[in-house]
C-alpha cells in the first residue's frame, strides 16, 4: 500500500498498514497522521538542531538502529548539517527537521524516536537549555519507578525556584523524567555542567534514600539516577512529543508541575491521546523556544558554594 502526502515537499509513504507498536495496534499510517497533527507543535523544538533518530523498520520488537548520517537515496530537499566526528574520523551529515515534510519522511522511515541536540547549528558549542535526566533504576515501564522520579523532580523544582530559575518537566516517554531550563545565548557546556553537577550533588545529599549519582545500575539499588552527565556536547535526550519504543506507544510529554504533584503517569500520553491533549492544554514546552534566562549570577554563586549546598 502506498500513497503520496503533500507538505512543503511531496512525501511518498509506503506500507501504511505495517504495525509498529503491536500491543497498542498502532500502524505506520497512524504514526504518520500523528506527525501531521503534531508537526506545528514539534517543529519549534527541533528547528536547526542536529537530529539523531532510532529506527525500527519492522516495529518496536524487531531490530533497531541509531542513525545520525542521512541515508543514501534520501530526498534532495532534506536539510542537513555536516559535523566532523572525532570518534569515526569522518564528517556526518546530520538531518535537520525544519519542516513538516521532514517529519513525515522520518515517520515513513519508521524513525520512531527523535533526539535533537541541545545546541543549534548556528553555534554547536552553546546549548540553548540546561537539562536534567532522572532515570529510575527499573526494568521496562514501571509506574512506581516513575513516581519516585517525580519525587526527585519536585525536590529539584524547589531548588530551582530558590535559584530563580524557571523549569519545565516532561516525561521521557518511558519511565524517566526530564527537567529543562531555557537559557540565554552565550553560555557553554562547561558552564551548564557546573549547574547540573551542583544541583545533582545537592539533591542527592538532600534525598539520599531515593536518589543517587551512581553510574552503574548494579550499584544503584532501587534509587533514581540523577544523570547530570547527559547534558553535554554530542549527547541528547528524547525530544518533546517524540514517540518511544514502548508497548503503549507513549510519547515524551511536557507536563505541568501540578500534574506531577497530582500523580500523573507516563502511560496516559500516547500517539493516540497526545493530539487531543495538546488541543486542550497547548504546548507546555513553548517557553523553551523563546529566549532563556541569564545564568551568570548562578554560576558566580556556585563558584563560591562548590559543595552542593544552597
UniProtKB/TrEMBL annotation:
The answer to whether UniProt assigns keyword Ligase to this entry is yes
Q: Which Pfam families match?
A: LigD_Prim-Pol (PF21686)
Q: Which UniProt keywords apply?
A: Ligase
EC number of the protein: 6.5.1.1
List the residue ranges forming a coiled coil, or say none: none
UniProt enzyme class: ligase
Positions of the DNA ligase D polymerase domain: 27-285
Q: Does the keyword section mention Ligase?
A: yes
Q: Which GO terms describe its molecular function?
A: DNA ligase (ATP) activity
Q: What is this protein called?
A: Non-homologous end-joining DNA ligase
Q: Which organism is it from?
A: Tumebacillus amylolyticus
Taxon lineage: Bacteria, Bacillati, Bacillota, Bacilli, Bacillales
Amino acid at each position: 500500500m502506498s500513497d503520496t502526502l503533500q507538505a512543503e515537499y511531496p512525501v511518498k509513504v509506503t506500507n501504511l498498514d505495517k504495525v509498529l507498536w503491536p500491543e497498542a495496534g498502532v500502524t505506520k499510517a497512524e504514526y504518520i497522521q500523528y506527525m501531521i497533527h503534531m508537526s506545528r507543535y514539534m517543529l519549534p523544538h527541533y528547528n536547526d538542531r542536529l537530529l539523531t533518530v532510532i529506527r525500527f523498520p519492522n516495529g518496536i520488537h524487531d531490530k533497531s538502529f541509531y542513525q545520525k548520517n542521512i541515508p543514501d537515496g534520501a530526498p534532495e530537499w532534506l536539510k542537513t548539517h555536516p559535523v566532523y566526528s572525532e570518534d569515526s574520523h569522518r564528517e556526518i551529515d546530520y538531518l535537520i527537521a525544519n519542516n513538516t515534510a521532514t517529519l513525515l519522511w522520518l515517520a515513513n522511515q519508521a524513525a520512531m524516536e527523535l533526539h535533537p541536540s541541545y545546541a543549534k547549528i548556528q553555534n554547536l558549542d552553546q546549548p540553548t537549555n540546561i537539562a536534567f535526566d532522572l532515570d529510575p533504576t527499573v526494568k521496562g515501564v514501571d509506574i512506581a519507578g516513575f513516581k519516585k522520579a517525580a519525587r526527585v523532580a519536585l525536590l529539584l523544582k524547589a531548588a530551582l525556584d530558590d535559584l530563580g530559575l524557571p523549569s519545565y518537566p516532561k516525561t521521557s516517554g518511558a519511565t524517566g523524567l526530564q527537567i529543562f531550563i531555557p537559557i540565554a545565548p552565550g553560555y557553554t557546556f562547561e558552564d551548564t555542567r557546573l549547574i547540573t553537577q551542583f544541583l545533582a550533588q545537592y539533591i542527592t545529599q538532600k534525598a539520599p534514600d531515593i536518589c543517587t549519582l551512581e553510574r552503574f545500575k548494579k550499584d544503584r539499588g532501587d534509587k533514581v539516577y540523577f544523570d547530570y552527565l547527559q547534558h553535554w556536547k554530542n549527547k541528547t535526550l528524547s525530544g518533546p512529543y517524540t514517540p518511544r519504543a514502548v508497548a503503549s506507544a507513549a510519547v515524551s510529554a511536557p507536563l505541568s508541575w501540578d500534574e506531577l504533584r497530582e500523580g500523573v503517569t507516563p502511560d496516559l500520553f500516547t500517539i493516540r491521546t497526545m493530539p487531543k491533549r495538546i488541543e486542550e492544554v497547548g504546548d507546555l514546552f513553548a517557553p523553551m523556544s523563546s529566549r532563556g534566562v541569564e545564568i551568570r549570577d548562578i554560576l558566580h554563586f556556585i563558584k563560591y558554594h562548590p559543595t552542593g549546598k544552597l
